[in-house]
Amino acid sequence: MMKDGSGSAAAVVCCSVLILLISSAGFCSGGVTSRFVRKLEESQDMPLDADVFRVPPGYNAPQQVHITQGDYEGKGMIVSWVTQDEAGSSTVTYWTETGKKKVANGRITTYKYYTYKSGYIHHCTLKNLQHNTKYYYEVGTGQNTTRQFWFKTPPEVGPDVPFTFGLIGDLGQTYDSNSTLAHYEKNPIGGQAVLSVGDLSYADNYPNHDNVRWDTWGRFVERSTAYQPWIWTTGNHELDYAPEIGETKPFKPFTHRYPVPYKASDSTSPHWYSVKIASAHIIVLSSYSAYGKYTPQTQWLQDELPKVNRSETPWLVVLVHSPWYNSYNYHYMEGETMRVMYEPLLVKYKVDLVFAGHVHAYERSERISNIAYRIVSGDCRPVNDDNAPVYITIGDGGNIEGLANNMTEPQPEYSAFREASFGHATLSIKNRTHAYYSWHRNQDGYKVVADSVWFYNRIWRPYD
Ligand SMILES: *[C@@H]1O[C@H](CO)[C@@H](O)[C@H](O)[C@H]1NC(C)=O
Ligand SMILES: *[C@@H]1O[C@H](CO)[C@@H](O)[C@H](O)[C@H]1NC(C)=O
Ligand SMILES: *[C@@H]1O[C@H](CO)[C@@H](O)[C@H](O)[C@H]1NC(C)=O
Ligand SMILES: *[C@@H]1O[C@H](CO)[C@@H](O)[C@H](O)[C@H]1NC(C)=O
Ligand SMILES: *[C@@H]1O[C@H](CO)[C@@H](O)[C@H](O)[C@H]1NC(C)=O
């Protein structure tokens, strides 16, 4: 168990050397560091002619189809796609097994990035859908090549409504990314929506952020994103901020391509917002937007948290790109300033889980908080806290930058499990008290569970 270090010699030393302090003071180490032996060669991006990047056949065929929840409650869906040859139609035709065909009209956007010119990017919101219903939909309606897909709307929001989320972070477009996506798809637990914790295409690793790699990524993930909603979080690889080539508008490609229903949760920016899905209230935060006091993001979060009705949505989950607790020697303490700002709020409102990416590895924390911090008191050590969330880093989707395998030693007490392997996770909410969480490393296929835990809700069963 972790003890509060009041009166320790560390009392007047700043938090930034916390880990060193713990180790030099001779505390015993934390949870499990898995030494699983894995191949360590760098992940390679799939080549432009890879099967997963193939352009669908037919003149002006819709490509890069993806959907995301289109409102606060799950009765709306935003359908997006790209046509390359000409603008074509932004209409979506949709129908249920038994119902009549309906149409919804969307809009087109395009953008330029350095010498790249995007195709016609279509966004169309389907509204007033029935819950828990399978819808077929067709894009390219009335023009040239049409394509059909389907999705199932989430069930009506309610406290004991079961729902299974997939968790994918830092996916990229390597052969490992392809395995991660395939394992998620095959996972028999049956994910119904993906919580994506940011860093999608890694197009910015190419010269001049070659946005063609945004298009290939869109085609690669279509086999999942066209059929179930992905809830988007922005990461540093969505910034595409490149003043050296005149690209000074942060998030330009991402915001043109991946719309989110931010207005539905009274947000003023697509980079922070929330959605309710089944028994969960999902809050998306932006590590790369201002989060100081009085900033729009902070004001929104302060207004949003008291609105969460735990009798309706018992599970309160936060997504953010840069982790607040991370014991790898990569991006070490990059999330610290945001943690200092927001952790007291998350503890006050008893958030259940915080998922992050950024670090290309896996880590799960104990249920801890570090909010007593005062520069004068020196109380700056994470302590066990039943009101605090568990923090999970799931930045192990498989991108081109490779694995983070250098860890701080010894493992800090707040770190329950860590392993440098690629994979994905699932969160299966059973009812208002119980949720089963599991992490699957890619080397084992999708059936083996490398880390798993039952989470108990902070409101309805606030003890572990
Ligand atoms: C990607 O994975 C899919 C599904 O397993 C497979 O069909 C496809 O051939 C893979 N592509 C590459 C380039 O590895
Ligand atoms: C594409 O559709 C438009 C509108 O229906 C039509 O005018 C055009 O001839 C079609 N082009 C091709 C190559 O089929
Ligand atoms: C919270 O949700 C419950 C269950 O849906 C409902 O009865 C109650 O009125 C809601 N409370 C508020 C303040 O909206
Ligand atoms: C691991 O990270 C530490 C701290 O940044 C560094 O001193 C050390 O050289 C790294 N080890 C390896 C094997 O890269
Ligand atoms: C909630 O789900 C857990 C796990 O499936 C189960 O053990 C428990 O009995 C359920 N609670 C209720 C009230 O049904």
UniProtKB/TrEMBL annotation:
Residues 388-448 form the Purple acid phosphatase C-terminal domain. Its EC number is 3.1.3.2. Keywords: Glycoprotein, Hydrolase, Iron, Metal-binding, Signal, Zinc. One of its GO terms (molecular function) is acid phosphatase activity. InterPro entries: Calcineurin-like_PHP, Metallo-depent_PP-like, MPP_PAP, PAPs-like, PAPs_C, PAPs_N, Purple_acid_Pase-like_N. It comes from the Eukaryota. Residues 164-362 form the Calcineurin-like phosphoesterase domain. Residues 62-153 form the Purple acid phosphatase N-terminal domain. Its cofactor is Fe cation; Zn(2+). It is an enzyme of class 3 (hydrolase). It catalyses: a phosphate monoester + H2O = an alcohol + phosphate. Pfam families: Metallophos, Metallophos_C, Pur_ac_phosph_N. Residues 1-30 form the signal peptide. Belongs to the metallophosphoesterase superfamily. Purple acid phosphatase family. PANTHER family: ACID PHOSPHATASE RELATED, PURPLE ACID PHOSPHATASE. This is Purple acid phosphatase. The lineage of its organism: Eukaryota, Viridiplantae, Streptophyta, Embryophyta, Tracheophyta.
